[in-house]
Every structure is written in C-alpha cells, then in structure tokens.
Amino acid sequence: MATEYLKQEGSDITSCLRDIWYETFLSWLVESEWGSSDSIPSMDEYLKVGMISIATHTTVLPASCYLKPSLPNSKLRPPKYEPLTKLLMIISRLLNDVQSYKKEKDEGTPNSVLLHLRNNPEANIEEAISYVGEMLNKKKEEFLEHVLMDDLTDLPKECRHLHLSCLKVFQMFFNSSNRYDSDTEMLEDIAKAIYIPPQIHSSKNYKLPGLVKAPVLGSFPTEANVTKCSAIKLFHGRFGKPSKNFITSSLSVRQRSVTYGNVML
User: Fold this and answer.
1) What residues contact 239, with CB distance under 8 A and at least 6 apart?
2) Where does the chain hold its CATH 1.10.600.10 domain(s)?
3) What is the pTM of this model?
4) Which residue ranges does UniProt annotate as crossing the membrane (predicted)?
5) Average confidence (pLDDT) over 181-206
6) Is-contact 128 102, C-beta < 8 A?
7) Mean pLDDT of all residues in the chain?
8) Which residues lie closer than 8 Å to 56 by C-beta, 6 or more apart?
C-alpha cells in the first residue's frame, strides 16, 4: 500500500501505516491481558482501548489515502486522529457491544454493557443496554454534524463520506443483532451486493423508455441449506463466478438508473 501511495502522491506513509497497526495490536494485547487476569477496567479505560481494538480506523484511514483529494499524511498519526475518525471508532465499538455482550460475558471479555451493570448493581440488562444506546445516539449526532458541516473539520468531503459509508457497514453488522458472527444472516445482503443486479420499478406517473428488467437469479437458499457453509463457498457453488456478460448487464442497469436519477424509481 505504501509503495502504491508513493507512486501516486510522491510521499512515503510506511511508518504511518505501521504505527496504526502497532496501536491496534497493542489494544488487542491489553484486552487479552484483561481477560486472562480477570481485570476490570473503568468505563473510560475500556472505551479508550476498545475504540482502537474495533479496528475501524485501520480500514478507513489507509483507504482515505487513495481518494482524490487524498487524506493528508498528518491525519494518519496515532493518536492525533480527527474528531470524525475518533467518533467513528467509538460508535463502531458501542454498536458491537450492544449486540455482543452475551458472547463476551461467556468469554470473560470486557464490554461497555457489562461494565455498566458491574458499576451499577441495581440496574438490569435492559437499563444497561439503554444507557449504552443513549451514549451511542449522542455520538452518532456528533458524527453526522462532522460529516455534513464543512466548518467542523478540514477533512475533504470525499474522506468524510467514506467515514459515513464505514459507519453504515457497521450498522449493517450490528444494528439489530450480531450479524457479523452469523453464518447465514448476511447471505442475502451479500447476494444483493455481488450477484443480483438492482431491480428497477418505475412509478405509475413516469414511463421510462429503454429500461430492461434486471435478471433475477434463482431462489435464495434457505437457512437450513446453508448450515456450516461459508458465504463465499455457498455463492460460488450455487451461482458460480460472475461472467463478463453478467457484469456488463449489471453495469448497464446501474447506468440507466443514474440516467434517470431525478425520477423516483
């Protein structure tokens, strides 16, 4: 990655990328030591480490280097991240915590929901989840302000939108359940993202000439049929590798969608 960036931008970010990963590995080590020694961190200590261990920044920051305009090198230096990046990191951690506290309780791993219960013995699990949920909603409001308002950050708009896209991914994983750890819950999303072209339905008030109906692949496999089967193996086994014609068809439909972007479809 650093070599490719050097070709494109003329500067070396090797040490920055190493520092980001060093920081991430160190956070995993700290959490491992908490678990093995039965240490209970404070909420502040936990969030400081947990926002790093979720590793959102290890994805969004290096990817931002290849945008146009690219992320400035100074924004890659731990821990001097922009407020927007820090908000994304902590929101991702809290989204994960609300849906994974049962698993982490069994594993003896710290979790913000479990820490609130421990610090407030009179509270029940619903109150602990609600407490973390309120914290999460406040952070989301701050995050959206930083994404949408130009005067709150000097990050390029393209970089801010990539942060927003990353948040959407984490919400897909953890908004209503822990779908990330499931072998089956995200298969339909994967099919729509990779294999099934977008469906275009015109409103009764609009007649759009030249639109072709996107082909629909076979019926989606039921949960019973995909037990103990990874998503990649499942789809390659059922649908095969997409052909050039399939990709061309998908792009054609998408291009038509863009052409009529001002019409409700």
Assistant:
1) 195, 217, 218
2) 2-174
3) 0.69
4) none
5) 73
6) no
7) 78
8) 88, 89, 92, 166, 170
Q: What is the mean pLDDT of residues 156-171?
A: 93
* Tokens found for residue 47: 């969030």
Burial classification of residue 147, based on how many CB atoms lie within 10 Å of its CB (0-12 exposed, 13-18 middle, 19 or more buried): buried
Provide the b/e sequence for 87-123 (b: ≥16 CB within 10 Å).
bbbbbbbbbbbbbbbeebeeeeebbbbbbbbeeeeee
Closest CA to 247 of 187, 197, 190, 192: 197
Residue 245, CA distances (Å) to 175, 215, 264 in order: 35, 12, 28
d(CA 140, CA 9): 33
For residue 3, what are the contacts with CB-CB under 8 A and spacing of at least 6? none
Segment among 38-42, 213-217, 241-245 with least mean pLDDT: 213-217
Q: Is 248 exposed, middle or buried (CB count within 10 Å of its CB: 0-12, 13-18, 19+)?
A: exposed
Counting residues of the chain whose pLDDT is more than 90, the rounded percentage is 46
| Tens-digit pLDDT profile for residues 19-50 | 999 999 999 999 999 988 888 899 999 999 99
- Note the CATH number of domain 2-174: 1.10.600.10
> Rounded to an integer, what distance in angstroms lies between the CA atom of residue 256 and that of residue 238?
28
